[in-house]
Amino acid sequence: MRNARHFAPGYATRDHAALIAANRHVLWEPAWRKLLRYTAIAGFCGLVIAGLWHIDATPQRILPGLTRLFMLLPMMVPPEPGDFLWTYLYAVLQTIAMALVATFAAAIVAVPVGFFASRSFNRCAPCRIILRRLMDIVRSVDTLIWALIFVAGVGLGPFAGILAMAFKDTVVLGKLFSEAIESITDSEVDSVRATGISGIALIRFGYMPQLLPIMLSHALYFLESNTRSATVLGAVGGGGIGFWLVDRIGVNDWQEVSFIIIMLIAVVIGIDWLSANIRGRVIGSAGHIRQ
Amino acid sequence: MPPISNTVPPLSAPVRRVETLRRERAQRLRRDLVVFGGAFAVALALSLGVGEVNPAKFIEGFPRLFSYIGRTAPPLDMAALDASLAEWFWRWNIWSARLFDTLVIAFLATTFASLFAFGAAFLAARNLVPRPVSIVVRRLLEFFRTVPELVFALIFVFAFGIGPFAGFLAVLVHSTGSLGKLLAETVENADDRDLEALKAMGTSWIPRVRFALVPQVLPNFVSYALLSFENNIRSATVLGFVGAGGIGQEVMTAIKQFQYTDVSALIVMIAALVMVVDMLSGWVRRHLVEG
After folding, report:
1. Chain B 73-102, CB below 8 Å of chain A: which residues?
2. Considering only alpha carbons, which residue of chain A is nearest residue B276?
3. Measuring CA to CA, how many Å separate A6 from each of A13, A14, A18, A173?
4. Which of residues 11-40 of B touch A (CB under 8 A)?
5. Beta-carbon neighbour count of residue B177 at 10 Å?
6. Which of B105, B251, B271 lies closest to A55 in CB terms?
């Protein structure tokens, strides 16, 4: 009994005060660190409060808003397509089609881009750095902004949406591909080079066997993310279901809005499932790369 | 001297067996390739039709795109650089105020989403709570992250009125969904030996989670929260398209009114903000992982 008390007072009785008292040497913290910690926490809370004030998060805004939000929910059930079931189904199909075409085009174009942006392939450091900076700029700007620009450039419709997604994804995939190219094992490439081939044939037989599974895996992830982006491109005139969503919200037809949202969730989950399936089946062991 | 035979000796039974298997495998692979490739080709052809992509559009669209890019080129004059820069960024004070709003939206949304996701993660982890609870929380998180931010933004603008507060709520909801999922996975993958030890001591649920899991998963939590901050900055740039605050309103006006040089100025400013945030957050994350 004495031994047990000596070992850890409060252990058997779950007496927390005694437990804390006995382990003070572990829990002790110098005063300056304590002060620093509390100052940091207080500073952070101050920033949050200042931010809330800045975006005008007042009770006068929140309370009526919540009331309106809860008024909205009963207006959304039951979800109904109204007279537009086939229109919506076609728009959903168009959304998926846009994602597929954009991903495919981006994956093809991104291969040469990736080689040009990779250190192991492009020896001209200044060109590489300029290319990478340009790619960083494209990457930092949201797909929806690019879609708006492409709509202004080539006109309304799914073509503009496809171009916007393909443009941004070419750049992002190009960067991912260039990293993949830089990280593959050189010995395999060297052994193929030793047979005397070069150029395209070297890429085909030296690089591609190692790269293809990684590239496919990345491309499948982009199919998923493009399906998500494509659902809202219609909001800026880029085609797909997003147009109808914005339109129905605009005319306060909330039953149709909830129907469209449900369709949209079904599509996203369906494509995720399909992509995970294909990734597992075609790519097998390489499917886990990234994340 | 016996003549040298140049005929291949008959293959032994095991070798024949392996050869047959190899041939069958190659055939199977080829068949799969034809089936999957064929299915993909059909899907792509359909998508090109539904997505309204055709050569005429390409021929018509591309020159227009290049002329668009040409017109966005800034009116820089090397002789009077500061004057021409001032002309390019003529609305810089308004733009930086809106960019600051964007930053505030992302900061607040990330902070609150981290708090909510932190709570939800433990309620979604299959190893901590009864199955029905984890299923409900998981479905809810899935709903939050599957519905695009822009859709939430549209609904919140309707309920709470135009302004950054609606945008903050939209990013908050979406980010809670995606962060909650990542955190729940971290919790499920955590080492459960400490948890078992505390369970054996008869500790109740909250201290069990607090002392066995939180210390293990906290660095990952912070790292994910920073990643989601980077994402949220990008999303917050487009919320203004639907009146939910931030730089998006300015971007939309510039593009729709064909203010070409404003478009390029805004893209440069957005890219600069995103890159700076990415850089800082990457630096912090690296220090977290190392130290």
Report:
1. 101
2. A140
3. 13, 15, 12, 62
4. 36
5. 22
6. B105
Q: Which residues of B touch A97 (CB under 8 A)?
A: 46-51
Of A61, A98, A159, the CB nearest to B160: A61
On whether the CB atoms of residues B122 and B209 are closer than 8 A, the answer is: yes
> Token digits for B256?
């729709």
Q: Any idea how long chain B is?
A: 291
- Beta carbons within 8 Å of A223's beta carbon, 6+ residues apart: A99, A100, A103, A271, A275
pLDDT digits (tens, 9 = 90+) for A204-221: 888 888 888 888 889 999
Interchain contact B55–A (C-beta under 8 A): no
- Which class for A44: exposed (0-12), middle (13-18), buried (19 or more C-beta within 10 A)? exposed
Residue A284 to residues A213, A245, A289, B120: CA-CA distances in angstroms? 9, 38, 11, 32
Contacts of A158 in chain B (CB under 8 A): 50-53
d(C-alpha B155, C-alpha B284), whole Å: 35
For Cα atoms A73, A79, A83, give the angle at the middle one, nearest 5 degrees: 135
Dist. CA B284–CA B291, nearest whole Å: 10
Q: How many helices (H) and strands (E) does chain B have?
A: 12, 0
Residue of chain B nearest A68, judged by CA positions: B159
pTM for the whole thing? 0.84
Contacts of B278 in chain A (CB under 8 A): 140
Query: Which of the residues B46, B47, B139, B253 would you substitute to probe the A interface, choosing the one with the greatest number of A C-beta atoms within 10 Å?
Result: B47
B150 touches chain A (CB under 8 A): yes
Q: Where are the domains of chain B?
A: 13-65, 93-290
Give the Cα separation of B115 and B182 in Å (integer).
14
Strand intervals (E) in chain B: none
**In chain A, where the domains are located:** 1-62, 85-288
CATH architecture, domain A85-288: Orthogonal Bundle (1.10)
For residue A181, the distance in angstroms to the closest alpha carbon of chain B comes to 22
Q: Tell me the pLDDT tens digit for each residue of B20-44.
A: 999 998 898 889 889 888 998 999 9
Which residues of chain A lie closer than 8 angstroms to B248, CB-CB? 145
Q: For A169-211, what is each residue's pLDDT tens digit?
A: 999 999 999 988 888 877 888 888 888 887 888 888 888 888 8
User: Which CATH architecture best describes the domain B93-290?
Assistant: Orthogonal Bundle (1.10)
